[in-house]
Amino acid sequence: MNTGKTSGLIIKWLFGIFAFVIFILALDAVFPLGIRESWERLHPFWVDWSEHGIDPNSPNFKPEVLFLAGKVESSGRTYYFEITMRGRDQYFRRTWIGREGKLGAGWGVELILGEFSGHYGFGYRRGSAGGGGGSNNFSGVPADEIPLCVAQDLWDSTGFVGAAEENQTLKDKWGHTEVFQKLEQRGKFKIPRKISFTTNHGTLYGGEQTSVYIVKRIEFRNEPTTDWFEQMKQKYFR
Predict the structure, then answer these.
(1) Could you check whether the bond before residue 32 is cis, i.e. omega within 30 degrees of 0?
(2) Of 72, 165, 194, 236, which one is least surrounded by beta carbons within 10 A?
(3) pTM (predicted TM-score)
(4) CB-based contacts of 108, cutoff 8 Å, min separation 6
């Protein structure tokens, strides 16, 4: 038996194990949040999901504003979303996909402010220099009389109530339905980490369409004030 050759192989084997361990430790240092999450941070569409809101377990806590953010899976595509709510009748949702100005990119907003509600979208299409937009607005209609908005029923006329139970299903008179799932306790309230929202456009316009909202960020805040929602109205619906 060639002991010199065997010793050399053992040394190479030990060195290989040592190099592998160093490699794993280096990955942990470079990607402390995990390879996938760190890749998302390096990706140009990375969104900060870290939470910095008010602690709902603090004494005398009363929800004023709820902020939700995450991803939407709809019609085979993945979008990003942010929802800011100060009660049922002060609501703003922003949804976007892709990089602004690029083919296939687009964004949309939805606003409720008192008895005003509006939708506006903008997309970049092939052969279009600036894309195209569209809006659908209601004025003089109470918030309870317009089609249901995503997560809006976490509030009622008295204030914030959160979700009641797993798979809680809510439906409006227009046939729009949302289901609260994967509830997470925040203080004395339950917040859904997943919302399945189905819109009913009628038979002539494609029937029902379900979008799944994956909530990655939940924050209770004391801002924005009503003035901010008014500014959003002037910005998108003037």
Answers:
(1) no
(2) 165
(3) 0.75
(4) 94, 95, 96, 119, 120, 121, 122
- Compute the distance between CA of residue 110 and CA of residue 144 in angstroms, rounded to an integer: 15
User: Residue-wise over 195-226: b if at least 16 C-beta within 10 A, else e?
Assistant: bbbbbbeeeeeeeeeebebebbbbbbeeebee
pLDDT tens sequence for the chain (238 residues)? 566 666 666 666 555 655 555 554 454 554 454 544 444 444 445 677 889 899 999 989 999 999 999 999 998 889 999 999 999 999 999 999 887 666 677 889 999 998 888 888 877 665 554 444 445 666 666 656 778 899 999 999 899 999 999 999 999 888 889 999 999 999 999 999 999 999 876 665 567 889 999 999 999 999 999 999 999 999 988 7
* Pairwise CA distance, residues 5 & 92, whole Å: 71
Strands 77-85 and 159-160: unpaired
For 151, residues 6+ apart whose C-beta sits below 8 A from its C-beta are 66, 68, 83, 85, 178, 192, 195, 213
